[in-house]
Amino acid sequence: MADQPSSQGNEDVSTLVRKQLDEVTRNSKSINGSLTRYILNTRTVVDKEKLKRETFGERDTRKRNKTILMVGEAGTGKSTLINAIINYMLGVKCTDRIWCEIIETKEKQTDSQTKAVTVHDVFVEESPFSLTVIDTPGYGSTEEKYNDLKTTKTLYQLCRDEVHEVNVVCLVVSSKITRLTDKQLYIFDVILSLFGKDVERNIVLLITHATQKPVNCLNAIKESKVKYAKTDDGKPVYFSFDNSHCEAFNEEDEDTGFDEEYHKAAWHKNEENMKNFFAFLSDSKPVSLSLTENVLQTRKQLKAAIDNLKERIKQTELRKKELEQTKAALEQHKKEKKDSNNFECEVEQCYKEKVPIQSDWWQLGKEATCCSVCEENCHYPGCWWVKDVYWCSVISRGKCTVCTGKCDYTQHVKEGKMYVTKTRKVKKTNEDLKKKYEEESGEKMSLTSRLENEIKENEREKIRLVEECYHCVVTLKMIALKAESESTLQHLDFLIEKVKETGNTERVQKLEQMKKHTTT
Q1: Closest CA to 87 of 35, 44, 137
Q2: Which CATH number is 9-288's, of 1.10.8.60, 3.40.1620.10, 1.50.10.100, 3.40.50.300?
Q3: Nearest residue to 299 (alpha-carbon basis) of 150, 488, 160
Q4: What's the whole-model pTM score?
Q5: Would the pLDDT of 442 be above 80?
Q6: How many C-beta neighbours within 10 Å does residue 416 have?
């Protein structure tokens, strides 16, 4: 077991460990086979659709706690690895011919178990620290990205409300890979997008099914540009395991034969690697997730700002088109030397209309937070778990961070409706224009000049909005470990196009470099 004292107590500790292990096995469900499996008794503390929290053992408040986050797609042996960690903490030896499971791997798990974030709080009497293991299943299915989104939200809420620091983030991969698949990159992208840059030194690789040094696997990870902790000479910090001898056993193994020598060799090798991992875990400094919450808050505000920006830019462009149509009609009327009092033209005018949001019955988050003063969509899809608008992600200190007027939260409403920009044909006369541009402004200048000024003002507003969005991206880049996540990349093409229109080539290059760095 990790970090056992080397003096007097070795024999006494060993006796206590044996005593505790005997008690654990007496109180656990057993399944006989080449190794006797014991399904550990746990207490369920939280049992929700997307979050389960289970406790094993009795908490000792005098002990420090270590928290690890396990990330990996199905089939990598993540559940078996978590069980191996528990066996190591319990001091299970090869000669015991037993295997303890906190996650029952052989029986088919329920649908809710495979899709829920599961927290295992492990309290072992003779361990120098207690352990919290956060298991993140359900990632990577193309058909279930919506479930992935809910899993990410659950993980965020867990880190915000209950888990305030993490010691180690474990990226679990199989040694058999020669390149990271799109699914694996997607999983790691989703998870690493949750963290700030200060977490990087605590990200380690746990490599499973490793019968020898996983050279090809390490090369694949290096080429993928995934973030992880490095040694002083720039090599990845990794720990390799081969738990196949604890994955394949069943009730029939006695008939098919049991390779005792292989079992011993694999067990002792894993025990040594687990000892090294626990030494790293013991020395690891916890990283506060306060920056993580800031990253997530900023990311949500960025997405909301971009969505709002797109709509407002669309409106400025439509307004510009309307103004240019009016200006062209006026100039043509003047060119033909017609009586200005008889001027009339038809133009495309944009307007806003609040309409019901169309969605399928199973979709959550199909509500929008809208400003009733600015008549703008501030957050869509909204924070479906928030009942009071005050707690919406785009509200900061009671003010909206997105709408034009940065209005008070009390001016906002969250409902199944949102504003949509539409156009309609309208007629304009000389009297209409004079009333708008002369009587309202109080300035005496030609209608054409006034239209030209408004066109220029529209363009300045568009540039301001693009500038605001650009700075959101830069801020995110500064604080986020994985700033170029899928959720940000989907907006980069739009941003690049609009920044090009402002003529700022330096910023265009920076955005294009960000995009290139992620797609290569």
Answers
A1: 35
A2: 3.40.50.300
A3: 488
A4: 0.67
A5: no
A6: 12
On the question of pLDDT at 142 being above 70, the answer is no
pLDDT digits (tens, 9 = 90+) for 448-464: 787 888 888 888 888 88
Q: What is the largest CA-CA distance in the chain?
A: 110
Residue 240 three-state SS: strand
d(CA 471, CA 509): 15
Q: What is the Cα–Cα distance from 169 to 59, expressed in whole angstroms?
A: 23
The Cα angle at residue 444 between residues 312 and 428, in degrees rounded to 5? 50
All structural domains of the chain with their residue ranges: 9-288, 294-357+416-462
Q: Which of 87, 133, 137 is nearest to 110 (CA)?
A: 137
| Alpha helix segments (H runs only) across 97-192 | 111-115, 145-161, 182-192
Q: Is the dihedral angle over the CA atoms 297, 303, 307, 313 positive or is it negative? A: positive
C-alpha 518/C-alpha 486 separation (Å) is: 9
Q: Going by C-beta distance under 8 Å and a sequence separation of 6 or more, which residues neighbour residue 255?
A: none
pLDDT at 68: 95
* Gap between the Cα atoms of 507 and 406, Å rounded: 26
DSSP characters for 320-380? HHHHHHHHHHHHHHHHTT--GGG-EEEEEEEEEEEEEPP--TT-S---EEEETTTTEEEES
Lowest mean pLDDT segment, chosen from 190-199, 303-312, 372-381, 476-485: 476-485
Instruction: Supply φ then ψ for residue 181, to 5 degrees.
Output: -75, 165
Mean pLDDT of 143-157: 65
pLDDT at 386 over 80: no
Instruction: Tokens 């869509």: give the residue.
Output: 380
CA distance linking residue 287 with residue 200, whole number of Å: 10
Sequence-distant (≥ 6) Cβ neighbours of residue 335 within 8 angstroms? none
What distance lies between CA 306 and its chain's CA centroid?
18
Residue for token digits 């957050």?
379
